[in-house]
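$ ./design --mode recover --in tokens.txt
reading tokens...
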């Protein structure tokens, strides 16, 4: 089956290593799978989601569903340091623990490995009832097993079935939001919706702001700077346009400011950005955290996609829109899933027309 979630080489290696470790692991640890749980006994729930900020935003519906199903249980979310402040405000978690996982960033960092050990010891001593990992990464499953909640639910995409009490096959064809909700069904949690803001209408915009967020966590996912510049200039003739200053947009802003000296620039923390977004007309960005955050805050967003499958990570719900190349990627790619040439094939005029169409609908 073709999959577009994990790098194929990583998938092959991790599954192979998992098979090698399995018989060794069974010598020291073995447990029956899928033993029914008493939902009334669940007093503490651990959720691990610490790879990217966007991943945390995409599990908001799942966290809400858990809180509705287990209103008396304490939900503990382990996330990355960059997402901690935002997660405290926009998720249903009762406690946030943040740290830098070495397999996400800083594999050789002694500090990160010490942090991992500290998280394991801290949470293992709490004797948690239920642990859930939505990622499907065997490294995450080893962490979950180290913490050792009584019941451990997760996906076995990269191996590690023996690390879970309730292993589930990975639904490679599902959107990331729906993937998390799919796992919850094995916990007998049935969410009513996968929307971020099903209980409220779109936030009424308070001014003419259109927000550009040109950041992306991979060069092949970035829309060309000249395109952002042209789009900014075109939109500014009619609308009040802002560009967001973030660690991954600094270079873009610097180059744009050489010819656009008086740009409107938002500067602030991630939490401040989320609050400032509420009330804007529209946010435009690449396939990245910002488009998901906008929708979560009740602001429409438009995501620019290249060769990657938008049905897996597009902004979720009626307030999320996408624009993508008209044709399937014909290029020789540097990345197994992403393509900068496909991103470049989408012109500023294409995006501008899509924006005007969305604003007319609003």
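writing sequence...
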């Amino acid at each position: 089956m073709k999959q577009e979630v994990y790098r194929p080489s990583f998938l092959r290696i991790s599954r192979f290593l998992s098979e090698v470790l399995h018989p060794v692991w069974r010598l020291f640890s073995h447990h029956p799978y899928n033993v029914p749980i008493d939902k009334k006994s669940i007093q503490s729930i651990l959720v691990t989601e610490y790879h990217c900020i966007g991943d945390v935003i995409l599990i908001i519906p799942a966290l809400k569903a858990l809180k509705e199903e287990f209103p008396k249980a304490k939900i503990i979310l382990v996330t990355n340091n960059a997402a901690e402040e935002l997660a405290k405000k926009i998720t249903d978690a009762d406690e946030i623990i943040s740290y830098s996982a070495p397999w996400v960033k800083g594999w050789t960092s002694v500090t990160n490995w010490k942090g991992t050990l500290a998280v394991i010891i801290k949470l293992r001593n709490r004797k948690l009832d239920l642990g859930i990992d939505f990622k499907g990464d065997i490294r995450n499953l080893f962490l979950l097993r180290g913490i050792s909640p009584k019941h451990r639910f997760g996906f076995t995409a990269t191996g590690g079935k023996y690390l879970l009490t309730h292993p589930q096959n990975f639904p490679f064809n599902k959107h990331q939001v729906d993937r998390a909700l799919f796992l919850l069904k094995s916990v007998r949690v049935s969410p009513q919706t996968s929307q971020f803001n099903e209980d409220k209408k779109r936030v009424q915009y308070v001014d003419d702001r259109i927000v550009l967020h040109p950041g992306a966590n991979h060069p092949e996912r970035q829309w060309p700077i000249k395109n952002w510049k042209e789009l900014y200039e075109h939109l500014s003739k009619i609308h009040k346009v802002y560009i967001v200053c973030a660690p991954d947009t600094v270079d873009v802003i610097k180059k744009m400011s050489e010819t656009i000296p008086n740009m409107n620039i938002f500067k602030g923390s991630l939490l401040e950005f989320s609050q400032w977004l509420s009330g804007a007309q529209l946010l435009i960005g690449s396939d990245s955290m910002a488009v998901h955050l906008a929708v979560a805050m009740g602001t429409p967003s438009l995501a620019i996609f290249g060769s990657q499958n938008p049905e897996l990570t597009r902004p979720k719900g009626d307030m999320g829109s996408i624009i993508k190349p008209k044709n399937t990627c014909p290029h020789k790619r540097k990345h197994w899933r992403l393509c900068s040439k496909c991103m470049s094939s989408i012109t500023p005029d294409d995006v501008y027309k899509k924006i005007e169409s969305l604003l007319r609908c609003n």
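exit 0
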